[in-house]
Automatic annotation (TrEMBL):
The active site is at E254 (nucleophile). It comes from Bradyrhizobium valentinum. This is Beta-xylanase. The lineage of its organism: Bacteria, Pseudomonadati, Pseudomonadota, Alphaproteobacteria, Hyphomicrobiales. Its EC number is 3.2.1.8. It catalyses: Endohydrolysis of (1->4)-beta-D-xylosidic linkages in xylans. It comes from the Bacteria.
Length: 349
């Protein structure tokens, strides 16, 4: 098949995927990225817990290696993710559970010290790569209605330090460190059926940030699609219409498909590979048609590129465009056709 990024660029779009330094040591996998990707997301290499495994000197080894590889191959890099309520170092937070009460600081770290580390991490990380990483996911997954807050936000970690102002603070610090960088807010579940309240809470957060003069330039729709949860045409069209009206750029930032389950239209574990691949491609088709119909959507990125390295490999083993032997699957051809069908943008970002 043709390069997905070349196909995307013909319509003023970018195609890419998350990438991690260990996987780039696989020459066949690296070659797949070189063929198909115009942009890579840093996956875990720049997350707080990876960069700062101790409170002492940061560890830039993985990020530097990935960036050097990408630059050598003419591939743009998107930094992910500066601030998240997950994946934080054990020396700072006591646990990494997902419940609403997670947020106890590890002794003897104080709230004031945690705030200092928050600022330090953003400023040092963005500043180190200023001029080299042009796009950042500044805050990841701020919304979780199950935590019971009136504003719909997660009641974890950084909420305990700054309250809901932590999101704006993160963007301001990132902008100060590199005024030329595009800054994104990345969120999960925005495409899911019956998640209207989630979409409303997310858009309300966007409006609060804009009202505060926050230097936000775009939004990432993670799009970890789940077949049994389904995707909503109406919800996607509404949200993207609202984001477009606000002048925000949108990335489909972490696309893959969880196809396994006991609830239709998901497929039982053990379903034949050809059946899975056909069902995944058919499931994704209307979603891609919807999101790529909006000119504000400027990039389509999958979470890793081939099944072998997917985080879903153990539960839904065929979630990505290329299989574990790096061969294109029906999903790859579906993406290619959706990119060809997309209305042209002015130019690739």
């Amino acid at each position: 098949m043709d390069s997905l990024n070349v196909t995307a660029r013909a319509k003023g779009l970018m195609f890419g995927a998350a990438a991690a330094p260990p996987t780039m040591l696989d020459p066949q996998y690296a070659a797949l990225y070189q063929q198909h990707c115009g942009i890579v997301t840093t996956d875990v290499a720049l997350k707080f817990g990876r960069v700062r495994p101790t409170s002492m000197a940061p560890n830039w080894t993985d990020a530097d290696a990935l960036l050097s590889w990408a630059e050598a191959n003419g591939i743009k890099v998107k930094g992910h993710a500066l601030i998240w309520n997950e994946y934080n170092p054990a020396w700072l937070w006591t646990e990494s559970a997902t419940g609403p009460d997670f947020g106890a600081l590890t002794a003897p770290v104080t709230v004031q010290q945690a705030g200092w580390y928050f600022d330090k991490h953003i400023v040092e990380t963005v500043g180190r790569y200023a001029g080299r990483i042009p796009i950042w996911d500044v805050v990841n997954e701020p919304i979780e209605l199950a935590h019971g807050r009136a504003d719909g936000m997660r009641s974890k970690t950084w909420m305990h330090v700054f309250g809901n102002k932590y999101v704006n603070r993160a963007f301001v610090r990132a902008h100060e460190a590199d005024p030329a960088a595009k800054l994104f807010l990345n969120e999960a579940n925005l495409e899911r059926f019956a998640y209207e309240d989630h979409r409303v809470a997310f858009l309300a957060l966007i409006d609060r940030l804009l009202d505060q003069g926050c230097p936000i330039h775009g939004v990432g729709l993670e799009s970890h699609l789940i077949m049994w949860a389904r995707a909503t045409h109406e919800g996607i069209m509404w949200l993207l219409g609202e984001l477009s009206e606000r002048g925000l750029e949108v990335h489909i930032s972490e696309l893959d498909v969880h196809h396994a389950g006991n609830t239709a239209p998901a497929l039982p574990t053990g379903t034949a590979a050809a059946t899975i691949d056909a069902a995944v491609a058919a499931f994704v088709r209307p979603f891609l048609d919807d999101v790529l119909s909006f000119p504000c959507v400027t990039a389509l990125m999958t979470w890793q590129l081939a099944d072998k390295y997917s985080w879903l490999a153990g539960t839904a083993p065929r979630p990505l465009p290329f299989d574990s032997a790096y061969q294109a699957k029906p999903l790859a051809f579906e993406i290619e056709q959706a990119l060809r069908n997309a209305p042209p943008r002015a130019a690739a970002p």
